[in-house]
Design a protein that fits this description.
The C terminus is likely disordered. The longest helix has 32 residues. By secondary structure, the protein is an all-alpha fold. The protein is built from eleven helices and two strands; from the N terminus they run ααααβαααααβαα. Helix content is 61%, strand content 1%. The termini are far apart. It folds into two domains: 37 residues, no CATH class; 178 residues, no CATH class. Keywords: Membrane, Transmembrane, Transmembrane helix.
């Protein structure tokens, strides 16, 4: 009984206590004992199932598993491991969060001017800016979360891309439906087809991107490369997103933004509605044409 306590219970307690402080020390006796098939450290030393976090345990995992030949860099993995790409993409997304939302509001208001009687147009024009805002906000979360630093909200990383994909496709379909109602300029079938192809390509490649990213969250490899098929799916999704957003900016051709607070200042000074914001005159205090005519009489 004493032998069992000294060699198993006390030793297990000591190893557990030591693992809380450091995991960089390797005892030769442990390596020899781990060669037995029934030893609990057998799988750890043979490197079959357990991944060592960035080479901090027993040997460098990054050197043991090199980058396979023919693989290409993955965009989500690069954002996870590299600081500079994540910072630049985060800045671009934050700028797009404000600009795209405002431009979407401007375009939809211009469509409502010519389509007041269409109930469908009113619903879509009010709902699309909200969809654009939500998709951009989720994209910001995707560029900010890190699975090692944000472990309390790591579960969000499993649902960010599916939620963004659904909102992006839904907002794209709304944008396509509004193209036919936009009477400011002639309908372009070429741009409509390009936007439709971009949405279709994004929808087809999005499941592959999500599957690859889930594998990354589970396996946590040290390199950023993925197989050719998975990498091409990610590149197609990014290209489709950029092409669709660029065409959306082209839909704003010919629009002018007029600040409402300056609308009265643009009226002629001889008009009865002329009331500069700095003067803050009431309409009743302004001279009317009838009063001027009666006084002259």
């Amino acid at each position: 009984m004493m032998y069992f306590f000294q060699n198993f219970v006390l030793r297990a307690w000591f190893l557990n206590w030591r693992s809380r402080i450091t995991n960089s020390t390797l005892y030769l006796s442990e390596a020899i004992e781990a060669q037995e098939e029934t030893h609990p450290l057998r799988k750890l030393h043979t490197k079959e199932l357990i991944r060592y976090n960035f080479g901090t345990s027993f040997s460098n995992y990054c050197e043991q598993k090199a980058i396979p030949h023919g693989w290409l860099p993955s965009i989500p993995r690069t954002l996870e491991m590299k600081i500079a790409p994540q910072a630049w993409l985060r800045l671009a997304v934050l700028l797009g969060l404000n600009v795209k939302f405002v431009l979407c509001l401007v375009r939809n208001e211009s469509i409502l001017i010519f389509c007041r009687g269409v109930g469908y147009a009113r619903v879509v024009c009010r709902l699309q800016p909200v969809i654009e805002l939500l998709s951009s906000a989720i994209l910001v979360v995707m560029t900010c979360l890190h699975q090692q630093q944000d472990r309390s909200v790591k579960w969000l990383m499993y649902y960010n891309f599916p939620a963004f994909s659904c909102l992006f496709v839904l907002g794209g379909l709304m944008s396509l439906s509004l193209d036919a109602l936009d009477s400011r300029e002639k309908f372009s079938a070429v741009l409509f087809n390009v936007k439709l192809v971009s949405l279709t390509a994004f929808s087809v490649c999005a499941p592959t991107v999500q599957t690859t990213f889930l594998e990354y969250l589970e396996e946590q490899p040290c390199h950023t490369h993925v197989p050719l098929r998975s990498a091409m799916a990610e590149y197609v999704c990014v290209a489709s997103l950029l092409v669709f957003s660029a065409i959306q900016l082209g839909d704003l051709r010919g629009l002018r933004i007029v600040v409402p607070s300056l609308a009265e200042d643009q009226a002629p000074s001889c008009s009865t509605s002329y009331s500069p914001a700095l003067l803050a005159l009431e309409p009743s205090a302004l001279p009317s044409k009838n009063a001027g005519t009666s006084s002259s009489a």
